[in-house]
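User: Fold both of these, please.

Assistant: Here is the first one.
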Amino acid sequence: MKRYQISRLYITVCIVLTVIMIPMNRLKVQAAEILATVSGTVQSGTTSEILKLSTKEGYMEIKLDAGTDTSTCKVLLPDNKISVSVSHGSDGYLHAVKIMSDGQGPGVTLDSSASATVTGTIGEKTKGDILYFNTPQGEMEIKLDTTTNTSGCSVLIVGKSYSITCMRGSDAYMHAVSISDMIAGTGIPAAGTGVPAAGTVTVPGTGTAGNIAAAASSVTPAPSAQTNAATATVTGTVTERTKENLLYLSTDGGEMQLVIDNGTDSRSGVVLTPGNKLTVSCYRGSDAYMHAASIVGTKENAGAVEIDKSSPATVTGTVGKKSTESLLYLDTPQGEMQLKLDAVNSISNCKVFVSGKKLTLTCARGSDAYMHALDIVGN
């Protein structure tokens, strides 16, 4: 019995001495020797610890650790194409040694005279090089370029908060110039990033270019405010995504988002149904969005028409998709009405007419047999 206890003690001492004599780096996860380099597409669910990658060979999960080199690629957003050199760790996982970007964006000219810094969280809709960024002012679409400076952040993943400095590109998108991490649980950029705190927006170089000329119109009321800002004029076609407060305009340079607010003069471009062609004067707002200063639609020349205003009628319905700046298609309980918009006196309680918008109109019959809208109220 005593001999057995002595043997157990001897074995225990040997094990302890063996462990002590093993170099400490032999006990750590080995993730430095490169086994292979794989290429694929980043998948949803990727975090700052686990990279989920879809490759030609199949689905892979690769660990990210303190030793992972992300100096040439920090964008780990869904649909982003990357290459990863991997090693086998003693914990049974593949570990990322270095991550490289496979994407090459087209050349785009950025407007360096005006930039904006915004803070927010990367949204779930983000894919590839289009970043859907949720800010206190709303959702922004920001493009990522190969030249975007990401030195101020660890990696870019969905659901994490960042501070982004951006500029408008020649393709009509806002482009990320630099991206920095935010301190977890706060609205404050990480130390040393040199960007403003959350909620602040800087727009240098915009200057004042005099009052924006309102589109000629006798319709009342006029916009409640006018904007003193440098403007640009764009032409395009209204898309299906347009809302009462946000115009989506398809232009030769791409799709633009233009905010419609109290200062927008839409009296000469009130019908924003899909396919309608518009000319818009716009400017960059302090919220980093482009804002519509004035909207002008395409209107047909109306001949001389006499309108019998002695017995006007009142109708209520919703705006139809076929509506144009000249002719409003109104869906009513009694059927579809066509009302000309050449004699409108006032538009109240709404800024623009989008598909499905409910309106109440006072109208009268003209000598051309059409009903003509006189006063329009949004419901």
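And the second sequence with its predicted structure:
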Amino acid sequence: MTNQEQKSRPFTAKSIMNLLVGSFFLLTFNSEAQIKTYEVVFNSSAPVLDGVRSPGEWDKASEAASDFKLLRTGGTESSENIQFQLLWNDEGLYMIAETDNTSWGDWGGNVDFGFDDYNIFIDPNDDDEPNEGSFDGYHIGIWQTNGLITRFADELDDQERTTFLEARYNANFGNNAGWAAPRELNWVSNHGDFGGVVELFIPWTDFNADEFGTHGLYHPKAPEFDDVWYFNIAKIASSGALPTWNWTSGQFFAVRPHGEITFTGARVPFIITEFGPNDDNAKSNDITWNSVSGKIYGVDFSTDMIEWEELDDGIEGEDEKTTFTHEDAPEGKKGFYRVRLLE
């Protein structure tokens, strides 16, 4: 075989452009995911699950998280604008997710991942495992369909709906952590030509999978302040698009890293904060305490702190503070008041 001298060729404008384009795609498809963060603010008053962003209801939450990118691409921005917010209190975790998509089908009511649906991944991470690799945690699937529906039958709806619920460790699919009933999380889905809203409530008691395991999933109580959990929300669109909040270069939503959420805020102590004569009637006393909207309170009066007279046992709490007026309170006597949380 005759050795031939390889001739060098000068770069042309076309060859330089091909090199640059090739390098661009190489860099894009091999770019690493960044871990997004979100602060979940404590709010003693729970949002009402009705599929509507009511005025003031989510104002205490951190700014809405958005900027979803498409899975199985080099990080292409989603053309569907999706955003979400989170809140928490002693009862559980709350989420609102909104989209500007206006094209919705009619869901048949069963598990159907060819239909529009949100997929939510949550890991309490009690085992302090690194935020990488296969998934540990809870997977919740919620379908998006025309109209206003809810998971459980209530005043909004008359039919119970299917929800995809799995818990797993070191796996992207399956329910090997044994997340079993009762699972009382509830959601309301409201979609139409205005876009779409999903509101979700997950009680802490639902994080009850893998009770005797060592995978960090069992957490049936509220987190501590500054705890960090792993979280992601993604969507399977009927169009085939796969927008996800914490994008990765993997092939599946469950593959980490996921986003990280930090529980912040402060609990307001349940105490009487103000006491004094009523502005309109000096013979009446006003008692004010820190309260939670919708909770029921009772107020009692005593002259010796041994025997108590119940003044009212059906006071519905207002947001942050509630005031009760003891009309024609006894004069010339030392008296004591107490406030009880009833339900």
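The longest helix spans residues 13-29.
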